[in-house]
Design goal:
There is one protein chain. This protein is 35% helix and 22% strand. The protein is built from 5 helices and 5 strands; from the N terminus they run βααββαβααβ. The strands form 2 sheets. A 3-stranded antiparallel β-sheet has the order 1-2-3. β2 and β3 form a beta hairpin. α3 packs antiparallel against α4 and α4 crosses α5.
């Protein structure tokens, strides 16, 4: 019989960079999780990803102080900023355009995001439309070339 889930921690953790330092250490320490064990497991699981990429992670804490965690693909905004070569989006989207991406880049991002549980049952075209909407809301222009 498994232990009961008593807590849930959701946060972005940089790939291959999990450490006991804040904000991760205190969040896990409050719940009695072995922080170093989590860091070793997470860093090993994200070894194939470029260091520093933000990974959405959900950690389920069980009553016997064990844990399980799931990771998803990096956020769409991260991919769009990388594709456009930007550090941040527009302060006033709709009025100010800070960069541009083409449809091929949108399609490549959509292929990666389609692996997420949220988009598994959605068509690739609808994932592309969602990403285009995100780009517009960040002040990034989508071009056809």
């Amino acid at each position: 019989m498994g232990s009961k889930v008593v807590g849930k921690v959701a946060m972005y953790i940089k790939a291959r960079s999990a450490a006991a330092a804040p904000p991760l250490g205190p969040a896990l320490g409050q719940r009695g999780i072995n922080i170093m064990q989590f860091c070793k497991d997470f860093n090993a699981k994200t070894q194939h990803i470029k260091q520093g990429v933000p990974i959405p992670t959900t950690i389920l804490v069980k009553s016997d102080r064990t844990f399980t965690y799931t990771t998803r693909t990096p956020p769409t905004s991260y991919f769009l900023l990388q594709a456009a070569g930007l550090n941040r989006g527009s302060a006033s989207p709709g009025k100010e355009i800070v960069g541009s991406v083409n449809l091929k880049q949108i399609f490549e991002i959509a292929k990666v995001k389609h692996q997420d549980d949220v988009f598994k049952t959605t068509s690739l075209e609808k994932v592309c439309r969602s990403i285009i909407g995100s780009a517009r809301s960040m002040g990034i222009k989508v071009t056809r070339d």
